[in-house]
Amino acid sequence: MLTYIALMKLTEQGIRDIKNAPQRIAENIKGLEAMGGKLIAIYTVMGEYDYVGIAEAPSDEIAMTFLLGLGAGGFVRTTTLKAFTTEQFMEMIGKLP
User: Fold this and answer.
1) CA distances from 43 to 20, 40, 93 (A)
2) pLDDT tens figures, 80-95
3) Distances in Å between the alpha carbon of 40 and those of 17, 22, 57, 76, 87?
4) Against a cut of 0.70, is the pTM above it?
């Protein structure tokens, strides 16, 4: 599985409807799982972003489809980072000329 870190900011709609955020989060976790993904962790944070999610998905296409659906809901905007394990990084470094 591939790992992704999603930095999320609430939209105006998202902050107006903040009381329903726990229900939306639970529904989105189920949606990700239905697509073959897995939520590793989600945090509510202070600062530039409102949430940070760490998830796994079987492919970039599935991750992108999930994130597009998340954004289309109108409650958050995302910035997503594809993450690599230390082992993957070491392997990449080992392939350098």
Assistant:
1) 16, 10, 31
2) 999 999 999 999 999 9
3) 25, 17, 11, 19, 18
4) yes
Q: What is the 3-state secondary structure (H, E, C) of 16-44?
A: HCHHHHHHHHHHHHHHHHHCCCEEEEEEE
Taking all residues of the chain, what is their mean pLDDT, rounded to a whole number? 98
Residue type, 35: M
Per DSSP, 96 falls in state: -
Integer-rounded Cα radius of gyration of the chain: 15
92 CB-near residues (< 8 Å, 6+ apart): 84
The domains of the chain, with CATH numbers, are: 2-94 (3.30.70.920)
